[in-house]
Design goal:
Length: 129
């Protein structure tokens, strides 16, 4: 199976109205296909494919913006009961846009019947514990 390289890259030049905050290395942008109210992305300014290519400085910047994402979500009037934070690294993990992006997904009690396992449930047969 062949995957395109996302050329042109949708995250290299976000529109001004998509950018919620930024620092030297990354930006918080709105997710164009949100899975919950307030869902946003932390995206490096440098075009890299996976988290494993990020520098120490970039990783610190990502974490700073993840914290700021929570503040933005609350200021937007959303009141999540929890958060899923993560990224897909390479095709086998579900990556479809090959510019690193870290999802900050607000979660709300009742949004799924049983949230137990959270991110572990991406492989349902291996999730029970």
């Amino acid at each position: 199976m062949k995957f395109d390289l996302n050329d042109p890259c949708i995250f290299c030049n976000p529109r001004e109205d998509e950018i919620l905050a930024e620092n030297e290395y990354a930006q918080i942008i709105k997710d164009n296909s949100p899975v919950s109210n307030g869902h946003c992305l932390v995206v490096p300014k440098r075009h890299i494919k996976t988290l494993f290519e990020a520098t120490t400085e970039e990783n610190a910047a990502f974490f700073e913006l993840i914290q700021i994402s929570k503040e933005i979500i609350l200021k937007q009037g959303f009141t999540p009961d929890g958060y899923n934070i993560g990224c897909n690294n390479n095709v086998a993990a579900g990556q479809s846009v090959f510019h690193l992006h870290i999802h900050v997904i607000p979660r709300y009690l009742g949004d799924v019947e049983n949230p137990k396992g959270g991110i572990r449930c991406v492989i349902p047969n291996n999730a029970p514990y």
